[in-house]
Amino acid sequence: MALYVLIAELQVKPETVNQFIPLLLANAQASVQNEPGCYQFDVTQQVDDPTKFSLYEVFADEAAFEFHGKQPHVSAFFDKVKDMMAGRTPPRRCHRIAGFHKH
After folding, report:
1. With contact defined as beta carbons under 8 Å apart, do 73 and 102 qualify?
2. Separation between Cα atoms, residue 58 and residue 3, nearest integer Å
3. Cβ count within 10 A of residue 3
4. Is the pLDDT of residue 1 over 80?
5. How large a percentage of the chain has pLDDT more than 90?
6. 44 beta partners
7. Element at 78 (helix H, strand E)
8. What is the CA radius of gyration of the chain?
9. Is the pLDDT of residue 103 over 90?
10. CA-to-CA distance for 1 and 74, rounded, in angstroms?
């Protein structure tokens, strides 16, 4: 069975970038540490526009993603950052068919 992937793009107000990053990283870390079905949560910051962030989240299946969305740390994250947000694109939901990387 293919893994379930969510790719999300967020934009924050320029004056909130430094405050936003630790909150985003804490949310990502809590997801991987506390949710058995969350296998990976990568966070990137765009080089030419540091107000833009991309998230690449890998889950066991769609049910694990739905479980993720109901976790208290996720709702707490969005409550904390709602006034920092400048935009958010609709997330892309995908099935991962392969993954290659070096450790």
Report:
1. no
2. 7
3. 17
4. no
5. 92
6. 54
7. helix 72-81
8. 14
9. no
10. 26
